[in-house]
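BUG: 3D viewer hangs when loading the predicted structure for this chain

Environment: internal workstation, default settings.
Expected: structure renders.
Actual: progress bar stalls at 90%.

Input used:
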Amino acid sequence: MGEISFVELPEEDDCFNIGDRLGEIEAEESTVDIYSPISGTVSAVNESLADSPDLINDSPEDKGWICRMTDFDPTDLDDLMDEDAYMEYVESLE
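Structure tokens produced before the viewer hung:
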């Protein structure tokens, strides 16, 4: 996607189902929607992304998180990729 210039975040206490649109990421090469990987309620959003959206590229697992969710079914996590599977998937796209 290139350098990220803007992130549209969900609101705290918003409820989402798997596949619902959470927000949007704008970058130099494209704009993409962010979809919820699980069903639940947004308990926190990363307000740091408003001023520093590039944190998603620079520190996606630490400072670049988008939102935290509660009230979800833990079995929803069973269908998500782990880091190795995700890296394999990304490499297959190249």
